[in-house]
Write a structure and sequence with these properties.
Blueprint (H helix, E strand, L loop, with lengths): L1 H17 L9 H14 L2 E2 L9 E5 L2 E10 L3 E5 L8 E7 L5 E8 H12 L8 E5 H10 L10
Length: about 150
């Protein structure tokens, strides 16, 4: 089928250009989100499958390490466990036109302190929490501007 061949060709081109997998078996949305976030926020992507963080950005001489989660759905996953807590967490909704809606932008600890601990949120098999788009956006509105990753 010609459309599938085109899709596979596009993923090979994206992999060559951005150094991400762009595999069609589950990583595609995450890889797309990371590349779009890097462009929008001026991030330097870390090598694929780097533990805990996907990108970094130097701000006033300090390296900020960022975990990026992107989704076409109404929720994002947030990691469970102290050793998995990202320095910064950037959750994005990918719209049908390819644009991004920022769901959360701030320190990972902010979500833990202001939502997970306060509500005694249950994790999934000690791997992640599921946070809805609405919850993330409400928390995002509370994060002070000076703790946000600036767009370029």
């Amino acid at each position: 089928m010609q459309e599938i061949q085109q899709l596979l060709s596009l993923t090979r081109q994206l992999k060559a250009k951005h150094g991400r997998s762009f595999t069609l078996d589950g990583r595609l949305v995450g890889d797309i989100g990371e590349v779009l976030a890097a462009e929008k926020y001026g991030l330097e992507l870390l090598p694929g499958n780097t533990f805990k963080h996907d990108a970094k950005k130097v701000v006033n001489g300090t390296e900020l390490y960022i975990q990026i989660k992107a989704s076409f759905k109404g929720y994002c996953y947030f990691p469970f466990g102290e050793n998995k807590l990202p320095d910064y967490f950037l959750a994005l909704h990918i719209n049908e036109d390819g644009s991004l809606t920022e769901l959360f932008n701030g320190p990972g600890s902010y979500i833990v302190e202001h939502y997970i601990q306060k509500r005694g949120l249950k994790h999934y098999k000690e791997t992640f929490y599921t946070l809805s788009k609405g919850v993330l956006m409400a928390l995002n509105n509370e994060v002070p501007k000076e703790y946000k990753i600036k767009e370029v």
